[in-house]
Structure formats: structure tokens, C-alpha cells
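Support reply, case 0932

Customer input (verbatim):
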Amino acid sequence: MKQTAITIENFKWVASPVFALICITFIGVLIYGNTLNATWYFDDIQNIVRNPVIRDLPHALGKIFDQRGFAIFSFALNYRIHGLELPGYHVTNIVIHLLTTFLVYLSLKRVFRNAPVLALLSALIFLTHPLQTQSVTYIVQRMTSLSGFFFFLTLYLYVRAREALSEGNNFVSTGHLFFYLTSILTGAIAIFTKENAAILPFAIFLFDLFFLPRRKQSIWCLILYLLPYFAAPVWMVLSKMVIPIIYGKGLRDVTGTTDPAKSIQISKEADFSYLLSYLVTEFSVLWLYIRLLFLPYGQALDYQYPLVNSLITIKNMLAFLGLSALLSTAWIVRIRQPLVSFAILWFFITLSVESTIIPLDPVFEHRLYVPMFGFALLLPQI
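Our regenerated output:
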């Protein structure tokens, strides 16, 4: 009896995006299918249940380019279809997470070009990690997952634009311009959906440096190519922070941390002192995030994490030195262990809006939604 050797050719279907989408959908529905009646929490009330804007769909559409306008419009669509019945909102959140995971998979195929199984495995880590629960089941955090969807859609479209150039298309060719211009648009949408996506140009730059084929061009050409992606972040910073502060608003008014419903306690110190307290607090918070990525136990919706009272303590200094060592490691191993280097840099870049100098609530698990990409990419290699 003749025996047939089993080779990778017998399993080409594993590399199929259709197979990946089926896996992502099946596993995602299996995990989150029992959350359809999870109730409203905290910011759900003011942003959805008691928000008059979502009850007027044309009005919500007119405010779509306001701060977080795309997310509010999506809530308005939900309300138009099924009022305040919970399952519809949860189904929408789950679908957004599934689609985002598929975009993550498509991007990871450019990382693991000869190992499609690793791309799918990493995408499934992104899908199923316990820390993603808050972004999916806490309804108002659709702001995070929807922004994440446009974030990774932008990354994927950018990759397609760069691939078009690598295939011999010139800059003004239809094959290139479609993906390039569309990615600039979706990048702007990501930022208008939630402000933490303002780091998108830096994330794209990092991904390009590590994983996309290098053309015979200087690094300055790449920076020039990325300049249009900075338009929306610059506009967001100027219109939502710089100009209001110039006209007399305090930093805490701009960031919304004076709201008495927030969990953190606001001191009466100057904004600058408060900013420093938040920054130093985040040194330890980042280590909490790292621990939660590798050992996700003791999760909480609201950590009630206190701001530091003293800036210079042994704990704060050790936390800072540890983070500095991580960044140094990323530089040292960038050639020999590029995935490790990329994962570390991605973690810091994608948390830089919410975990540095802009004072917000110190800890929320949903902030790891986009940073999860670097962790998911690295974990199968460990």
C-alpha cells in the first residue's frame, strides 16, 4: 500500500484568511456569547442611557466629527434599532472585536510571512486574552474597541499601500493612492473615535521599520511619507487641549478629571504638580499592566488606584529604573531579537497618551486593547 507523505502543502487551507475568519468568529462567539445581558456600568449611564444625543440620529450624525463622535453615532444607531435593550449593544461590541481581530491577523501575516499558523495563533491571543473583556463587555468602551478597529484598519491599509509601491507602482498610481488616501482617512476616524489613537503615526512608523521591506530610501523619505497621518493628531491636540488651555481652562478641566463621578481624588495643587503626580504614578501602573498581560488575575472594573503623594520614593525609583531597563533592552536586542524589541516599543508607544503626562484615571484595563497587539505577537515566540 502506497503511503502519502504529509507536507505543508496538504494544509494550505490553514493559511487562508477565510479559515482564519471562521476560527476567529467561532471562538469569539463562544467566549462572549454569554455576555449579551451584562448590565450598564458607570459611564454607560451618562454616555448612553441618559445621553439625549443618541436619541436623535440626525443630530448624532451631525456631531460625528466631534470628540468621540463616531462612537456616539454608533450608540445612536443601536438606539434607533432597539432602544435601550442590552443584547443589541453587546452584539455590536462583539462584532467590532471580531473584525478588529481579523485585521490584526491580516497585519500579523506581514510579520510571520512564512508562518501563517503563528499569525493566526497571535490573533487568537489578541481575541481571547482576559484583559480584552472590559473593551468588549463594558458597553461604553466601544469607544476603545471601535477606535482600535479603525487603528488596525489604518495599519493594514498602510501596509497595502507600501506593498503597492514595492510592486513597482509609482506614488500617483491608482493601486497605491487608493490604499494610501483611505488609510489617512481611517486614521483620522480612529482619532476622532478616541483620542488615544493620536499615536497612530508613530505606531505605523514602528511597524514599517521592523516588518516591511525596505526600499532604497532614507529614513527622512519615510517620515515625509507619514506626514499626512499627523494632521488629525495635531488638530486634536490643538483644538481639544492647547487652545482651551490658552483661553483659561485648567489641565484638569480639559481632561475631565474634575468630574466628581471620577474615581480619583483631585488635590488643590497646581496643574503641574498634579501632572507630575500622575506621571510618577504611571511608572508603577505600567508594571501592573505588564503583570496583567502575563498573569491576568485580580482583574477589576475599577481599581481605585491612588495617585502618589511623594514623587521620590524607593518604589517610584525602582519602577522608573525598571522601565528604563526595558527600553534599553529594546534597543540592545533590536537586531538579534526584533520581535522582542518591537513588542516592548509598541507597549510604550501605544500607552503614551494615557499613561504619561495627560492626567486621567490612573488604571483601566481597556487601555491595553491596542497594546495587546505587541504582546500577542511576542507570546508564541516565548
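We compared this against your earlier run and they match. Two observations from our side: The mean pLDDT is 88. The chain has 17 helices and no strands. Please reopen the case if you see a mismatch on your end.
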